[in-house]
Specification:
This protein is mainly alpha-helical and 175 residues long. It is 67% helix and 3% strand. A two-stranded antiparallel sheet has the order 1-2. A hairpin with a 5-residue loop joins strand 1 and strand 2.
């Protein structure tokens, strides 16, 4: 874009920025989360992004506007991921064996043979592993990439493909 890079923030400027902007940014991010803890984690992630990328922002954009944009992007991403995880958990929960009040196992559907598990089992190995690590184990993209020895971009793409395949397989015609 041809913009002059900005100087990285020094420690004093960053500390002042954090004190000044945290309440406003927390309020923005909190709109996208169910719990304060999640919002605090996203806010911490935001400040790491600021520390890492502030020198690359467009010099014409005021710092406050850039921070707001980063907060919105983080919030939207979190909300999308949470929605996907919730959808998958609901599907998996419906397929798991249940125990009756008498202690007998009542199977809603044969857990190993349900449509969801069959669909997961039919995914390519990498997609299946990424899906299980990201959704079931709730590992971060970075942790999943490290565990599988893959790039983070590969993990993100594999998860996207796996979820798209499951959506098509399990609910054709619905989105």
């Amino acid at each position: 874009m041809g913009d002059d890079p900005l100087a990285p923030l020094n420690e004093a400027d960053l500390a002042a920025l954090i004190r000044r902007e945290t309440p406003r940014l927390f309020a923005v991010i909190r709109c996208f989360t169910e719990h304060d803890d999640d919002a605090e984690d996203l806010l911490q992630h935001l400040w790491l992004i600021v520390l890492d990328r502030s020198h690359r922002r467009d010099a014409r954009m005021p710092m406050g506007a850039w921070l707001h944009t980063v907060a919105l992007n983080l919030g939207r991403s979190h909300h999308r991921r949470a929605k996907r995880r919730k959808w998958l958990r609901l599907r998996w929960a419906a397929d798991l064996p249940r125990t009756s009040s008498e202690g007998n196992t009542v199977t809603v559907a044969d857990a190993a043979g349900t449509a969801l598990w069959r669909a997961v089992a039919e995914l390519p190995r990498l997609q299946r592993e990424v899906l299980l690590l990201r959704v079931v184990e709730e590992l971060s993209t970075r942790e999943t990439a490290l565990r599988l020895g893959r790039a983070e971009g590969t993990v993100k793409a594999s998860l996207h493909r796996a979820l798209s395949t499951l959506r098509m397989y399990l609910s054709p015609g619905q989105r």
